[in-house]
């Protein structure tokens, strides 16, 4: 039987299928159209930027770092250019060790260079290039360039290197720069300066290089470079030039610095010289020194071990962070406090039997038989301990604290270096805060006695003692000490002063200041400083002092040459010159130097002779090394062993390329020694009352303190 077709149904199904197919086609077309609109219209800017990023590379241009010069224009830190072989770990296509082996056939690569590269790779957070060899020779550059196609991810770059041409001279002042480590990178990323450090590999680590980092660094520039598919630069599209870092003009006289460092020799210690009227730090010596060139590219393990294991601690910045009991250098300030606070007059005198009894304790003078009748002038000039024991007992610890704090003792001076130590100027409030147990918080009156001669818990930095001396001879006018005198724009050569205005003024009576200055002059004329300054062509005042290192028996001498060197007293001397209008104030400490008159004062004499008279010690005259500009080729024959610092070279004229570098206290007080120095025939001595016969201390130490006798006015001393 023949099946009849339902044409209407078939037509209906055909139309349904056609509709579905058309609908699907429309949906697919709509999706494609929507995607096209999304990519080409809505997200056009985003994807266009990404496309350009694949074709255009934004490269930071690191600025030239500012120079550091002394007050007379001698260059202390500078830059020079050279070639560096660098590896970008993310771009190399072979094993690192085999790559370095292949490179070693073209360039001299030592095991230490491999070790340093691996250390840098561990510390680096970026994907940038890292140096395997610095300061390539012309021949090495030529050999590598001819074979460059064999080493993807390896390139030769022209870099700017940091150099400290005077080596270890003033190293604690200048400091050094070093490669940015992980800790540095984290701090930079969290700061507002992060964009300015793009491409920067080195940063100030110590000294002025660190404290003036932002000023020395400058402003980073950028350039847009079109690159090929292989990442090679094709052309520069635009360039925003960097701004070079500014130059630092220091207050330091580097020749004075050399004189003092040479005078120290192999001894340890510190020396600070300040211009009283301005606060200019003329010299800032910490001995022993170190060569900052060792650190800039990464110090080798042997040198690091030598510096860190040395008993002399060369990395310690002694003027800034070394805290020592001031010894008898504290006495002029005690005398001034007594005058200002009405505790003594200039002519009041005591009878000194050679000791001071307080309760059941005896505080002995350095001169066993005592000094006889002693007024304030003689107490300072001859360093009479008994006088200041009694004065401290009468004044009390808090009165001493409040007066001495005005002179910066136990306070932060605010000098332009990081990590300054505060030291300690004790008080009853300090002791309550320092100890938890109530029994330990109570101030013991006997502790006050030793403070009067600069022993006990007093500990000050050499910087603080120089600062206090400068304030004293500047009639109480306080000028903040500073190492940087001017900041210079390298392009315009315009300089801006950093010298601060008067910080504050201590209300001192001029006649009291003049009296103390004259008494300190007596130390030089007739006291412990006379031998060192015999024949000087200028007037000066000073005060020697010793600071105990360990307690010794009363029959032993802390300062003698027979004592074990490390157990000898520290040798202090504070001084100023000339007396009538001081141009320089200093403080020096020679660690384990014994008496101040033997070790410290002769160094100050050499410093004053140079600064005031222009006389250098005859035994050694160090010429200033000139900074001579050279092209990159002229310095390319040296090797990486010299530990340079490199940064990208740019076309600015700031820093001309130059040659690379060629290759604590005890409980028993002590004071200045009471020796009899040679007297100057041309200088008159003030008359003093006749001495009483030496007295013997009682067997039972219950004697009351020596009483003040009637006023005695020595001839030649103005009241």
Automatic annotation (TrEMBL):
The answer to keyword Flavoprotein applying to this record is no
Q: Where is the composition biased (Pro residues)?
A: 687-700
Report membrane topology: Single-pass membrane protein
According to the entry, every stretch annotated as the Penicillin-binding protein transpeptidase domain falls at 269-608
One Gene Ontology term of the molecular function aspect: penicillin binding
The protein's required cofactor(s) are namely: Zn(2+)
Enumerate the residue ranges of region (Disordered): 651-719
What positions does the domain Penicillin-binding protein dimerisation occupy?
A: 61-237
Q: Where does Zn(2+) bind?
A: 352, 365, 371, 384
Per the record, the similarity remark reads:
Belongs to the transpeptidase family. MrdA subfamily.
State the protein's name: Peptidoglycan D,D-transpeptidase MrdA
Organism annotation:
Undibacterium baiyunense
Gene symbol of the encoding locus: mrdA
């Amino acid at each position: 039987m023949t099946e009849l077709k339902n044409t209407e149904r078939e037509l209906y199904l055909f139309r349904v299928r056609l509709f579905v197919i058309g609908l699907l086609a429309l949906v697919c077309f709509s999706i494609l159209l929507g995607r096209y609109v999304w990519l080409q219209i809505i997200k056009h800017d985003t994807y266009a930027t990404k496309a350009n990023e694949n074709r255009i590379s934004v490269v930071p241009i690191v600025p030239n770092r500012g120079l550091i010069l002394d007050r007379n224009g001698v260059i202390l830190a500078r830059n020079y250019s050279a070639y560096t072989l660098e590896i970008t770990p993310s771009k190399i296509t072979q094993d690192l060790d085999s790559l370095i082996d292949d490179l070693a056939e073209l360039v001299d690569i030592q095991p230490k260079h491999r070790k340093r590269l691996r250390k840098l790779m561990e510390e680096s957070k970026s994907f940038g290039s890292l140096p395997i060899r610095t300061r390539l020779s012309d021949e090495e550059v030529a050999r590598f360039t001819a074979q460059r196609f064999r080493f993807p991810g390896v390139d030769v770059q022209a870099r700017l290197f940091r150099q400290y041409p005077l080596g270890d001279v003033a190293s604690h002042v200048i400091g050094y720069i070093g490669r940015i480590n992980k800790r540095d990178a984290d701090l930079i990323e969290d700061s507002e300066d992060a964009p300015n450090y793009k491409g920067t590999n080195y940063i100030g680590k110590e000294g002025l290089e660190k404290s003036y980092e932002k000023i020395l660094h400058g402003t980073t520039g950028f350039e847009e470079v079109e690159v090929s598919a292989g990442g090679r630069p094709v052309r520069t599209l635009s360039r925003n030039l960097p701004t070079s870092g500014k130059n630092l003009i220091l207050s330091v006289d580097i020749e004075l610095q050399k004189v003092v460092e040479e005078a120290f020799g192999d001894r340890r210690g510190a020396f600070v010289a300040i211009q009283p009227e301005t606060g200019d730090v003329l010299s800032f010596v910490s001995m022993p020194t170190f060569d900052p060139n060792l650190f800039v590219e990464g110090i080798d393990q042997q040198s690091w071990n030598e510096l860190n294991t040395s008993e002399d601690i060369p990395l310690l910045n002694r003027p800034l962070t070394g805290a020592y009991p001031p010894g008898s250098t504290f006495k002029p300030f005690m005398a001034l406090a007594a005058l200002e606070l009405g505790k003594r007059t200039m002519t009041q005198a005591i009878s000194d039997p050679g000791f001071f009894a307080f309760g059941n304790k005896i505080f002995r003078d350095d001169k066993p038989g005592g000094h006889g009748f002693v007024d304030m002038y003689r107490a300072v000039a001859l360093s009479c301990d008994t006088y200041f024991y009694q004065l401290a007992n009468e004044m009390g610890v808090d009165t001493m604290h409040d007066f001495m704090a005005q002179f910066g003792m136990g306070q932060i001076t605010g000098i332009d270096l990081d990590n300054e130590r505060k030291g300690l100027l004790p008080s009853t409030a300090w002791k309550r805060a320092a100890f938890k147990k109530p029994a330990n918080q109570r101030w013991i009156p006997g502790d006050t006695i030793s403070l009067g001669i600069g022993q006990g818990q007093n500990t000050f930095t050499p910087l603080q003692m120089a600062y206090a001396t400068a304030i004293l001879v500047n009639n109480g006018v306080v000028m903040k000490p500073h190492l940087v005198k001017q900041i210079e724009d390298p392009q315009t050569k315009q300089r801006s002063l950093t010298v601060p205005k008067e910080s504050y003024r201590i209300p001192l009576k001029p006649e009291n200041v003049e009296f103390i200055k004259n008494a300190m002059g007596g130390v030089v004329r007739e006291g412990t400083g006379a031998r060192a300054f015999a024949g000087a062509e200028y007037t000066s005042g000073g005060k020697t002092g010793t600071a105990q290192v360990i307690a010794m028996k009363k029959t032993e001498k802390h300062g003698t040459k027979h004592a074990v060197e490390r157990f000898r007293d520290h040798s202090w001397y504070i001084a100023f010159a000339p007396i009538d209008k001081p141009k320089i104030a200093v403080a020096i400490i020679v660690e384990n130097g014994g008496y101040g008159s033997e070790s410290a004062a002769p160094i100050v004499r050499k410093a004053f002779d140079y600064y005031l008279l222009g006389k250098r010690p005859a035994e050694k005259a160090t010429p200033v090394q000139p900074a001579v500009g050279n092209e990159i080729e002229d310095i390319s024959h040296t090797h990486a062993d010299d530990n340079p610092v490199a940064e990208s070279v740019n076309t600015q004229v700031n820093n001309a390329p130059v040659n690379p570098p060629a290759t604590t206290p005890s409980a028993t007080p002590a004071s200045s020694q009471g020796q009899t120095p040679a007297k100057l025939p041309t200088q008159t001595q003030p008359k003093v009352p006749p001495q009483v016969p030496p007295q013997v201390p009682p067997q039972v130490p219950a004697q009351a303190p020596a009483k003040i006798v009637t006023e005695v006015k020595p001839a030649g001393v103005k009241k």
